[in-house]
Design goal:
CATH class: Alpha Beta
CATH topology: Trna Endonuclease, Chain: A, domain 1
Number of strands: 5
Shape: globular
Largest sheet: 5 strands, mixed
Strand order of the largest sheet: 1-2-3-4-5
Oligomer: single chain
Number of domains: 1
CATH superfamily: TBP-interacting protein, N-terminal domain
Strand content: 15-25%
CATH architecture: 3-Layer(aba) Sandwich
Radius of gyration: 15 Å
Order of helices and strands: HHEEEHEEH
Amino acid sequence: RHSLLLDTSYLEIKRQGHEYKGYIAENFVHQELASLAIEPTFSWSDARAEMELIISDERGRIVPVEIKSSNRTRAKSLPSYITKCRPNKTIKLTGIQSSPTTETQNIEMPLYFTEFLMKHLRNIED
């Protein structure tokens, strides 16, 4: 099967090196959050660091969200944001199929758990 948008098969998109993979992951997360009425969303950039998504929790605290589509989840953007802005919590959504960690400050969860992001933020202690 082929995607109508890109005329590219799902398997080709899923491959590690596909050029649109990051864009598709970011779009997926934004669409999931929009469907949950979590708007507006913002981004942040500074020099060569970029946070794809900035949201706020139910208490109004800013929570940066980094979106990584591949199995390589290390990046400089989130540590750079943490150093400059000192957020209470951070979230990294990744392409790795796993269960969410029990970490309560720097949370890492699979992309497919985006739907539960706000619920997860609510359930963790400060």
